[in-house]
Specification:
This protein is 37% helix and 4% strand. The protein is mainly alpha-helical.
């Protein structure tokens, strides 16, 4: 009974709030601002206002509805949207450089630096093992290591098509709780250790921007380029 009364009281409160807000809307409609008939305004029946934050000289926005298919240029010409909202600033080359870190399958975009299996193992134990398991066998997150002969489950060595993708992803997205915090050398170290653990490189191989693109990945054969002419317009 107590719960039922509480629920009914809640709905009554919401109903009262809705009626109250509706009354405010009606009052504003009845006593609100009159249509702007000034020379700088619009014809009778339209209400205009300056966009907050622009002062008296800011752009004037009309409450007239504009069909959604009307172009931005038309909206700007009819003064139904401001030229700008005053937020942010132009991105500078240093700003863009921080985010422009993608690496292509051919190694384009790889930074300077290098990594070794030994250093990668030490870094992995501190920054990766708690999620992916001590040896990359998986934990609270995905398995990273499997037999390179394809007999095991999907992992880096059995499924990923390019070794450069490993570097790219680790640098951008890992560790999970601090993505982007690894140095380039740490990423090379982790890449080397993971490739070694998957049986793809020797333990003493140095991994850098020259050697990484040349490491063959068994998973490449599992992917087929989509060269269908009929679907090119979708890309």
């Amino acid at each position: 009974m107590r719960v039922r009364i509480a629920v009914r009281t809640r709905y009554l409160s919401l109903a009262a709030l809705t009626i109250w807000m509706g009354g405010i809307g009606c009052a504003q409609g009845a006593d609100g601002p009159a249509p702007d008939s000034s020379p700088g305004g619009d014809q009778a029946g339209r209400v205009t206002h300056n966009v907050p934050g622009f002062g008296g000289d800011g752009p004037v926005i009309s409450t007239d509805a504009v069909p959604p298919h009307v172009s931005l240029e038309t909206r700007l010409a009819s003064r139904t949207v401001p030229l700008r909202f005053g937020y942010g600033r132009p991105a500078t080359p240093p700003d863009i450089l921080v985010w422009d870190i993608d690496v292509g399958p051919d190694g384009a975009g790889l930074p300077e630096g290098s990594g070794t299996v030994d250093e990668g193992g030490a870094t992995y134990a501190v920054k990766c093992a708690h999620c992916h398991g001590p040896e990359g066998e998986g934990g609270v997150n995905d398995r990273l290591v499997a037999a390179a002969d394809g007999s095991g489950p999907r992992a880096i060595g059995t499924y990923w098509p390019y070794a450069t993708t490993l570097f790219d992803y680790v640098r951008r997205a890992m560790p999970y709780d601090r993505p982007g915090s690894l140095t380039d050398d740490e990423v090379y170290d982790l890449t080397a250790w993971l490739l070694y653990r998957n049986g793809l490189i020797a333990e003493d191989q140095l991994v850098d921007q020259g050697s990484l693109p040349g490491i063959a990945m068994p998973g490449l054969s599992l992917f087929v380029p989509d060269d269908r002419e009929a679907y090119r317009h979708v890309r």
